[in-house]
Structures are given as structure tokens and as C-alpha cells.
Amino acid sequence: MNMKLDQQIPMLLGPHHMPETRGLCLSEEQTVSSILRRPRIGGNRLLDMRTQPQKLTRRCEVTAILILQVLTGSILAHELMHGWLRLKGYRNLNAEVEEGICQVMSYLWLESEILPASSRHAPSSSYALSSSSSYPPTSSKKGGISHTEKKLGEFFMHQIANDTSTAYGDGFRTAYAAVNKYGLRQTLNHIRLTGGFPA
């Protein structure tokens, strides 16, 4: 959008101290006081001195951008699934099939972050895309997530599950039902062969 930044800004995921914040831009500002009226010296004290705050501006003021991991991770899971489909030769999928399976990956990522492993619903077959990974995945955060992050993750899961659009909502529900019944690998194999979900 032709909005060039003149600085490389560090991007950080998951501010633990502010879990209710989706994103935060940190900047640095320095303030000094300037003397408006010279003081008189009276004994051991300065008298009649007036000061006014004055900002010192710097060329580089943005120190970092923080992004809440729960939202960013679910978006990355969705977009990385698009990338995986392209790289593996899944071509010309209709929007309901492609967006549906990508929403499943977003949903599963959120589930892996906010639900304890013992309470996750594992489908009949493995969710794994490769033999080296397995379901259920463990949370990527060390020490777990806060109550607020959990609630936010549950809200995002609810949004995905109840989306009213054809591609994202109906596509997700059909894809999720197929993955729960047949597993991710078989569902993806069926999509490759037929361009649609197994019944």
C-alpha cells in the first residue's frame, strides 16, 4: 500500500504480561523540562523558577510491535495450509473445499493451544501430515496460557465454527466432519483425488 517504514521494527509474538491485548505498538518518547524563567538564588534555594515539559523527538521511536500469539497462530495455521496445498499440487479446488480445510487447521491450532491434551477430541485417524508429527499437538507456549488468552482462543474457535459464509463456514463444518470421521490424511487424499470431501 506504499506505506514504507523507515525502520526495521522487531515483531514479537505473545506478550505474556498483557494477554487481553491483541496487538501493541511500543514506542519510546523522552521528556525533559526546559526552564522558562531563570531562578533567583535565595540562601541555599532556587526561587521563582518555572519549568515546562518539552518532548525530545528522535528519528526512530518505534521499539517493537507485539502480537498476541493466539490470533496470529491461528491465522498462520490457515495460511500455511494454503501454502501446503499449493506445494503438494492441490490445484483448482473450489473455495468451500480449500477455505474449509484451511479453517480446520486454524481451528485445530487454536484447540491445541487452549485445551489440555486430555480433553481434546482426537478423531479416529491421525491428524498428522507427516509420519514425524502426531496428534494431539502440545501447546507451543512454555508454562501454558492465561485465562484471558484461553477465553479469547475459545471465542476465535466459536467464530470459526459458527461462520455463516459458504466458503469459510459451511466449508469448515464439512471439512471438520470429514477430518473427525476419516482423519486428516485420508481427507486430504480424497480431496486430491476428487476435489471434494469424503461423505
Automatic annotation (TrEMBL):
It holds the Pfam family DA1-like. Residues 126-140 have a biased composition (Low complexity). Residues 14-194 form the Protein DA1-like domain. Residues 126-146 are annotated as: Disordered. One of its GO terms (molecular function) is ubiquitin binding. It comes from Setaria italica. This is Protein DA1-like domain-containing protein.
